[in-house]
C-alpha cells in the first residue's frame, strides 16, 4: 500500500507556514508504508530532529483500483475515513525548503503517520466534516473539510493522473491551522465530530 498526502490544503494553514501564495494544484507527497503507526501505539521522538510538529488530518482509504478517476466518480473509490497525524520534522523541512530540495525524509520517516481505525463514510458528509486534535486535553487544531482548497474528490482526480490508486492506499488530505510541536510525555487525542478516533502518547 502507499500513503499519499496533500500539503497546503487549508488556506489558514498555508498562511501560517507560507504566507505569500496558495497552491494552484494539490501539493502531493508520499510516505512509505513504514511510516504507519497504528493501534494507538506511542510515538517515539526521533533523535534526528529538534522540532517534530503534529498535523492532524482527515484520511480516506481507497476501496478499489483506479487511474485517471474523474472528480464526478471519485467518491466511488473510497468507502472509509479515518484520522491521522502527518508528523513533520519541521527543522529538517525548513532546511530542505530553503535549499529547494525534496522533503521526503522530514515527512516519511518511520512512524511519521499514526492513523486511527477506519470507519464507514456512510452518515458523514465528507465535504462538511469537523475534526479536531487535543494535546494534553486542550484543543490545538479544529478543522472542517469544507475549508479545504481541494476537496477529497478533486485530490483523487488529481493524484490518480499520476499514480494508480489501489485498494488499501490511504490519502492524508491536509491539515488545518494550528500546527505545532510535540514533546516528550505529550498526549494526543483526535476526533471526527464527537467520536474519538485515536489517543496516544509521545515518548
Ligand atoms: Mg500535512
Can you offer a commentary on this structure?
- It is a single chain.
- The protein has helices at 11-17, 90-99, 104-108, 152-162; strands at 3-7, 27-31, 36-37, 52-54, 56-62, 78-85, 88-89, 113-114, 119-120, 130-135, 138-144, 170-172, 180-181, 187-192, 195-201.
- The protein has 203 residues and is α+β, with helices and mostly antiparallel strands.
- It has one domain (3-201): Fumarylacetoacetase-like, C-terminal domain (Fumarylacetoacetate hydrolase, domain 2).
- The protein has a 6-stranded mixed beta sheet. Strands 11-10-14-15 form a 4-stranded antiparallel beta sheet, with no helix packed on it.
- It is globular.
- The model has no long low-confidence stretch (mean pLDDT 96).
- The structure holds magnesium ion.
- Magnesium ion binds at residues 5, 7, 55, 57, 86, 172, 174-175.
Pick out the low-confidence regions. Answer: none
Name of the CATH superfamily: Fumarylacetoacetase-like, C-terminal domain
Number of individual domains: 1
Shape designation: globular
Please outline the major beta sheet.
6 strands, mixed
Mean pLDDT value:
96
Order of helices and strands: EHEEEEEEHHEEEEHEEEE
Structural class: alpha+beta
Distance between the termini: 27 Å
Number of DSSP E strands: 15
> How many helical stretches?
4
Strand content is 25-35%
Strands of the widest sheet, in order across it, are 2-1-12-5-6-9
Based on CA atoms alone, the radius of gyration comes out at: 16 Å
The percentage helix is: 10-25%
Bound small molecules, deduplicated:
magnesium ion
Quickly give the CATH architecture.
Alpha-Beta Complex
Amino acid at each position: 500500500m502507499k500513503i499519499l498526502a496533500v500539503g497546503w490544503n487549508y488556506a489558514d494553514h498555508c498562511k501560517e507556514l507560507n504566507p505569500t501564495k496558495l497552491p494552484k494544484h494539490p501539493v502531493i507527497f508520499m510516505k512509505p508504508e513504514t511510516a504507519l503507526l497504528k493501534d494507538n501505539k506511542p510515538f517515539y521522538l526521533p533523535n534526528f530532529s529538534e522540532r517534530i510538529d503534529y498535523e492532524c488530518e482527515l484520511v480516506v482509504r481507497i476501496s478499489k483500483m483506479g487511474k485517471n478517476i474523474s472528480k464526478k466518480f471519485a467518491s466511488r473509490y473510497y468507502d472509509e475515513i479515518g484520522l491521522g497525524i502527518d508528523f513533520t520534522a519541521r527543522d529538517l523541512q525548513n532546511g530542505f525548503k530553503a535549499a529547494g530540495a525534496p522533503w521526503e525524509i522530514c515527512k516519511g520517516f518511520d512512524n511519521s503517520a499514526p492513523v486511527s481505525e477506519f470507519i464507514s463514510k456512510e452518515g458523514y458528509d465528507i465535504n462538511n466534516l469537523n475534526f479536531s486534535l487535543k494535546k494534553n486535553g486542550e484543543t490545538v487544531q479544529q478543522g472542517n473539510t469544507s475549508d479545504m482548497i481541494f476537496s477529497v474528490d478533486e485530490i483523487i482526480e488529481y493524484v490518480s493522473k499520476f499514480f494508480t490508486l489501489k485498494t488499501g492506499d490511504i490519502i492524508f488530505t491536509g491539515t488545518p491551522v494550528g500546527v505545532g510541536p510535540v514533546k516528550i510525555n505529550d498526549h494526543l487525542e483526535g476526533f471526527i465530530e464527537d467520536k474519538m478516533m485515536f489517543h496516544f502518547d509521545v515518548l
